C-alpha cells in the first residue's frame, strides 16, 4: 500500500461553471505536471475545475520518487480512489497510457461521471509493444534510462521523439518536455506486461471515450478498438498525433475533441 497520501493538484476554473470537475491521471514515466502545459489551462478557461493526481512515487521533485519500485498498479488504484473521494462531486476522469489501466482497475469497484482514455494500454498489455521495439527500435531501451534520469543527449532526444511524439515535432523541441518525465516503478512496468492474465471484474456503466494518435508508435491507433469494445466507447483518432497527443502540435485537436465529448455528456 502507498506509504504517503497521494498529491492532488487543484487548478480552479477561471469562470463560474456548473460543469463536473476534471481529474487528470498521468501515465507511466511521467507525473501530474504533464497536464498543466496545454490541457489544464485550456479547460480552466472554459470554466472547468481541474485536478491532477501524482501517483505514489511520482512528482516533479526527486524526493517524491523515494521507494518508487515499491509501488504497483493496485497502489496507483488506491491513489486514484483517494483522489476521487476527496472531490466534492464525481469527476470526469481523463487518463493517459498507464493511467488508463489504473482508471479501468479503479472503475471495477469505483465510479466517476465519465472517463476518457487517451492512448490507453490495450487489454493485451504492453508485451507486444516491448517485443516490437526490441526488433525495430533497439536504441529505445538503451536511451530510456538517459531520458528519465536527466542524462539525455542528442541521440536520446531523437530516439524518444521518434517513439513518443508526432513526426511533425522536431526532436530538438522535445527538450522542453524533459522535466515532465521520470523513472517508473519496475513493479508497475512488470504488471503492465502481465495485464492480459488478470481476470477483469465488473465495470462502472458510465460514458467513455477512447482517443489516440494516428502516429502513435507505442500503442498504434489500430489497438484502440479493443479498449473501445470493452467500454462500448466512442473512438476518436487525432490525425498526425503521437503517443503524447496532449503535448504534440496536434494538441488543439485533442482538446477540441475532448470538449465536444464533454459537452455531449450534458
UniProtKB/TrEMBL annotation:
InterPro entries per record = AB_hydrolase_1, AB_hydrolase_fold, Carboxylesterase_BioH
Query: What Pfam families does its record include?
Result: Abhydrolase_6
Instruction: Tell me if Magnesium is a UniProt keyword of this record.
Output: no
Q: Look up keyword S-adenosyl-L-methionine and say if it applies.
A: no
Boundaries of every AB hydrolase-1 domain copy: 22-250
Which Gene Ontology molecular function entries are recorded, alphabetically? hydrolase activity
Query: Where would one find the signal peptide in this protein?
Result: none
Q: What is this protein called?
A: Alpha/beta fold hydrolase
Taxonomic source organism: Azonexus hydrophilus
UniProt KW keywords: Hydrolase
